[in-house]
Automatic annotation (TrEMBL):
The lineage of its organism: Eukaryota, Metazoa, Chordata, Craniata, Vertebrata. It comes from Etheostoma spectabile (orangethroat darter). Pfam families: AA_permease (PF00324), SLC12 (PF03522). Its main location: membrane. Keywords: Membrane, Transmembrane, Transmembrane helix. Residues 196-205 have a biased composition (Low complexity). InterPro entries: AA-permease/SLC12A_dom, SLC12_C, SLC12A_fam. Residues 189-213 are annotated as: Disordered. It is a multi-pass membrane protein. This is Amino acid permease/ SLC12A domain-containing protein. GO terms for cellular component: apical plasma membrane.
């Protein structure tokens, strides 16, 4: 609910108000030594999540992740995430537990609101994986708007094939009151009198009880 945007720039005003209320609540405590461990732990949690996100993007070969830093290494990012988590407990263990509980709760909430796990169709995943070859982008989930990664947008949709499509009712069954009529027409250059014979012949065929499909 806090992500709802307003105005031409789609500004999340509800999120701004929530941030203001949280910041004001900590300021009104008026004890810097009390709020410092909590604030430090949340900063360290943010750094840890950023480092782990960078590590995960590198490990998954994400096409949108192209680090320009010359000496970048994904294992350094993983070590940075682990060190941030360690320092959180060194500063204040109860604040670290509180921070981790809040972060875990937010993660579970987001995962619950946006599940999108196509567990029932593994064959489709294997097929698309043969297309991407760990280079292209494959998004698995239910159909939603605003999907993608940065400027990359999905351009391929994979659907399952109906194996028993020949057994459908609309293909092979017709109403008992309907009959197919086959009329042979001579396309030679005849007079108008001959065309009247054709129409009478078609009428007699249509009314005949022995009509072949």
């Amino acid at each position: 609910m806090f992500a709802k945007g307003y105005g031409k720039n789609n500004e999340p005003l509800r999120g701004y108000i929530l941030t203001f209320v949280i910041a004001l609540a900590f300021i009104l405590i008026a004890e810097l030594n009390v709020i410092a461990p909590i604030i430090s732990n949340f900063f360290l949690a943010s750094y840890a999540l950023i480092n782990f996100s960078v590590f995960h993007a590198s490990l998954a070969n994400s096409p949108g992740w192209r680090p320009s830093f010359k000496y970048y290494n994904m294992w350094v990012s993983l070590a940075g995430a682990a060190l941030c988590c360690g320092v959180m407990f060194v500063i204040n263990w109860w604040a670290a537990l509180l921070t981790n509980a809040i972060v875990l709760g937010l993660f579970i909430y987001v995962s619950y609101k946006k599940p999108g796990y196509p567990n029932s169709r593994p064959a489709l995943l294997d097929l698309v994986n043969s297309f991407t070859k760990n280079v292209g982008l494959m998004i698995c989930g239910h159909i939603r708007t605003a999907a993608g990664l940065g400027r990359l947008k999905p351009n391929t949709l994979v659907l399952g094939f109906k194996n028993d499509w020949r057994d459908g009712d609309m293909m092979n069954e017709k109403s008992s009151g309907m009959k197919d009529v086959i009329v042979s027409i001579d396309t030679s250059k005849d007079s108008d009198a001959d065309s009247s014979k054709l129409s009478s012949k078609a009428t007699s065929l249509q009314n005949s009880p022995a009509v072949h499909k």
